[in-house]
Amino acid sequence: MTQNEFWRLFTPLVGMIGDSHSIVVEPRFFIKAESDPVKYLPIFTDYIDGEIVITQSLTDEKIEKGVVITAVNGVASKELIRKLGGYRFGTSREKAHSAAGWLWVGAAELFGRPDKFTLSLKSGKKVTVQGMKLPEVMKRRQAANADRLATTFSPIELKFLDGETAYLNSNTVTYDLEKYKALIGDAFTRIKSAGVRNLIIDVRNNDGGNSALGEALIDMFNAKPYRSWASKWKRSVFYAEDLKRGNIPLPASVIEKYLAARPGETLSSGFETITPGANPLRFGGRVFILSAKETFSSGTMFLGTIKDNRLAKIIGEETNEPACMFGEMSLFWLPNTRLRVSLSVKSWIPPAGCKGMRGVVPDVVVNRRVADYVTGRDGILETALNLIK
Predict the structure, then answer these.
(1) Domains assigned to the chain
(2) What is the dihedral of CA 249, 252, 257, 262, to 10 degrees?
(3) For 173-190, what is each residue's pLDDT tens digit?
């Protein structure tokens, strides 16, 4: 059995765990792009209102952004989502969304790596597009996104929408903590100097990382005590060896406590009250948080802390990831196939406790529509601005 054949059998099994942090990495990530023989579907898509929506087309044929795909090679979109979802991870909501985003790769695997793909569109039109090898897909995507890629990366971006409102985009908390504190310190210095009364913090594309960064951001606009997350963490010999090798960046006191526990013992941390100290840069006006189904991991925990402690008003979509989640990923290689695997080792309980498998539900729910891709309308930001007015 080849590595890829085993991947196709093993991945759906791991997907049944229902945890978006417990995954099997695709073999293609460990092949040089120029050595990858597969021809991929050069179209990127999203899952909106139960439909597969084109967000970017790299084909020679002209296909507009916002067009809905109803079938590929005769397989209806709902069946595509179901089949591709078997190779994705997390809850059923997460799998459906991930399956649509993975279509450009998954279609090749699902249909036996063909040279061409026939798309059925909601308009009734059918379009046959040529598959592309990975170097060409990457080249065209880089060219299409050149303006965005040219921008220097920063985990935050500050804009002033008018004299009354500041907008802070927080796209990740995967960053060095001290450097992040310096960045948000500079941002809130500018906010204070501008004298704005309203602050919008956008975590719609926040892909997570280190929850301590989210707590540092909360400290910049919240002065009242709030409840933290609780956790359960089972001691394992495997993870203990990883800690001893220094592969996991955790505080020494946490590592010491973990290693002192017996194998199989569950370490629990209860809810704690965090009392913010004095902060001369702390924003004292109204705060609005923007959420989306894509907000993930520590980004979801940031939203959960805000929601359960009522620290600000959240506007947008419910997160696909459940508020009761897993994390602290352990990465390892399977010994024979050399597949890369990630496995969660800790469960997290939000401040208000677990309430089923729902995501973090905003105070004001605003769901995106297919038409938004065509018009470029941002209904979530519009709603926040209307609430401010």
Answers:
(1) 31-147 (2.30.42.10), 156-388 (3.90.226.10)
(2) 60
(3) 989 999 999 999 999 999
